[in-house]
Every structure is written in structure tokens, then in C-alpha cells.
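tmp note - UDP-glucose 6-dehydrogenase
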Amino acid sequence: MRIAMIGTGYVGLVSGACLADFGHHVTCVDNDAAKIEALRGGAIPIFEPGLDVLVASNAKAGRLSFTTDLPAAVGEADAVFIAVGTPSRRGDGHADLSYVYAAAREIAGALRDFTVVITKSTVPVGTGDEVERLILEANPAADIVVASNPEFLREGAAIRDFKFPDRIVVGTDDERARKLIGEIYRPLSLNQGPLMFTGRRTAELIKYAANAFLATKITFINEIADLAEKVGADVQEVARGIGMDNRIGPKFLHAGPGFGGSCFPKDTRAILKIAQDHDVPLRIIEAVLAVNDTRKRAMARKVSNALGGSLRGKTVALLGLTFKPDTDDMREAPSIPLVTGLKDMGAQVRAYDPAGMEQARQELPDIDYCDDPYSCAQDADALVIVTEWVQFRALDLAKLKDVLRQPVVVDLRNIYRPEQMAAHGFIYESIGRGT
Ligand code: UGA
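out:
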């Protein structure tokens, strides 16, 4: 099978490399010549565990290549994936589809034989119809089917998610396309990955509904955490207790500083816009977004409370800046409103992150960056664990207490146990543990 992958961002690069690893011939296309040149030289523009090795081995085997020449890649492809970005449009929260439509127009002129064009980017319901219309408008003789195949990869676990998916959703009613896409994913049936065939619009909605549901689950447990703090309960145990009910499930019930990243905030905003356009109020999702925004901003107050209510003249050390571990991604990270809040309240802020400091410097230029957790904590009045990197789970607590000016730890990810921290003499605040 010959595949063209348009867009070498996060989704395109991971999907392209994994499909090549299945044995397909994949050509990744991007109009950013410098990026393609770098990829050819083996440089991976994103931080994703295992991706460098996967790209290198498949490139070496001749199954994975990189080009700026879209017509050449599309012309020889059986399937063309559109995996370009769909950022939030400035001002109105709608997904910006200009890259998707530009790709569709370019693809149209390069098509030869029967080709399945597959949207992998997260796109509003009805985008597949428009992609099909644009292609046929530009090239009325084109023999194509446009299908939707949304991705459900998590940053930091993307390769595992691709190779061991809970499901693969394929939206098209066309039998030729179903057969071809089934063939593309055939290696996954060995891993018991179930293929779900459905209509194109349904597939597009599944993607948004999945992310909105997960964002809701997180926000739900975050609010329960606030209640647990007040009533003297432990949210971790509550999550375990409800999660053992199969109808609820144990995942995505980890209370924290609010969700961030490139997907949940953008996609919840986008589904709300789609719903507004169709006059369907989605009040639960509206509330999820509002609660999450408020929560992220409230984290600075939590730190200030741990230090007696004032941050003036205090130094606060942050461990972890990225929106979650195993990524360098700072998009909508809870650390951003946290830093703003801390500085507004008069604190000096310094930080350490294992992989995100370069990106963080652009978002947060006015804080001090440190080389490791202990130099970060040196003479600080409080240490705040913002992202649950594995490196922070087994800190030398005695050393930490030694270097801190005040033994105050605010753990926004609940990676330590209150008894353990108390035994080491810390004043320890975490999320939703009022016991
Ligand atoms: C998310 C989805 O999990 C993927 O299935 C989806 O494909 C992807 O968006 C996408 O649409 O592309 P991702 O944003 O990489 O993946 O990261 P998650 O692991 O889902 O975490 C998102 C945010 O939720 C993070 O800020 C994380 O800290 C937070 N979170 C997650 C919690 O606060 N509690 C939890 O229990 C889980």
C-alpha cells in the first residue's frame, strides 16, 4: 500500500511512522522545506518517546520518506491522509480549516487512479463533505472517496496508542474505501484493535464527543476534589471507589490543576461552536470549559494560601511546566495561568522542567529557569509540583527540605502521600485530600 501523509505535525508524523512500521510505503509531505530537510537528516521536531527510533528505522528500510513535493506523493498514493493543523480560529473559537481546504485543493490536481482521501485532522462535522466538494470542483474527473478516520493519540503515549488502539473509527459508506482502509489497518487486528465502520459525519462527531466526554470526566472529578477537601474526604479514594464501577471506569479520574494541551481546550471550544451554529445548546460542555478556566486560575491562590495568604517577597519554585509529562508541549498548560497569578500576587517564580524549558521560555520569559529540582528549590518559600514527570515522583525529600527556605510543598498532581510528607516535616498541600 502506498500512502501520502499530508502534514508532518504531531498527528501526521506519528501516524506516518507507525503506518510505515506496519509495512506500508509512506511519504510524509509538508510545505515547510526546512522541516522536511531536518526530518530527512533524522531530526524529529517534536518530543515523543520512541518516535526518533521509529522514524530512523523505517526511513532506513526505505518505507518512510519526506518531501515537499505534494503532487508526486499524491500521484502515486492509494490513500492520502490529511493530517494538517486545525487551530482555534482567532476571535471566534471555530476550528480554522484553511490548511485542510488548501490541502484538498492541492490534492485534487495531483490525483491519478482511484484514491481514498482520509481526514485525520480533527475537523467539524461536515468538513468531509466540503473536502469532497472542493476536490471534485477542482478535478471533476477525480475517482475519489473522502473518508474520516479521527485519531485518538495521547501525546507522550502516541506510538503505543497507535499500535494498541481501543478502536479505529472509519467514517465512510463506500465499500471500496472501507476495504482499502481495512487493509491499511490490517496489522492491528493482530493486536485486537477493533475497526468500527460508520458514516462520515458520525465519525467526525465521535472525535469531538470523545474529547468532550474525557474533558468532562476530568472536570467532574476536579469539582469532587474541591468538595472532598472541605468535607474531609480523599478524592483519590473516591475516584477509585467510583471507577471500580464498570459503567464509570477508572481512567481520566485523576484530579489536578485542570486540563490543558492542544486538544481538549480547542476541541471543547470547537464542539460548542458547532452546536451554536445548529442551535443546540451543550450546557454541560459549556460548564466544563468555564469550570476548567476558573480552576487553572485558582491554583495560584492555593499556593498563596499554603504560604499564609500573601506571596509578596516570596519565591516559588515550580517543578514541571508542560501540560503533562513526556512532552515538551506548553499549549494551554496550567503552568501558564499559575505563573501569571503568582507574579500578580508579588512572587518571584523559578522553574524546572525535564523537556519543556525551551518552549516555556517563549510562553513565560519572565521567570528564572533552573537545571534540576534541587537548585530550583534552593531558598524557595514553597515548591509546587505542577506536572507529574516521573523524575519528580521519587525526590530526595531530606535534601529537598534542606534546601527550601520554608518546608512548604504544594502538590497539584497528588504524587506524594500526605503521611509521608508530614513524616518528613513538610507542610504539604495537595488536591482533594481533606483527610
Ligand atoms: C487527548 C486525548 O486523550 C486523546 O485521546 C486525543 O487523541 C488527543 O487529546 C487529541 O485529540 O489529539 P492529550 O491532549 O495528548 O490527548 O493528553 P491527555 O493525556 O488526554 O491529557 C490532557 C489533559 O488532561 C492534561 O492536561 C492532563 O494533565 C489532564 N488530565 C488527564 C487530568 O487532569 N486528569 C486525568 O485523569 C487525565
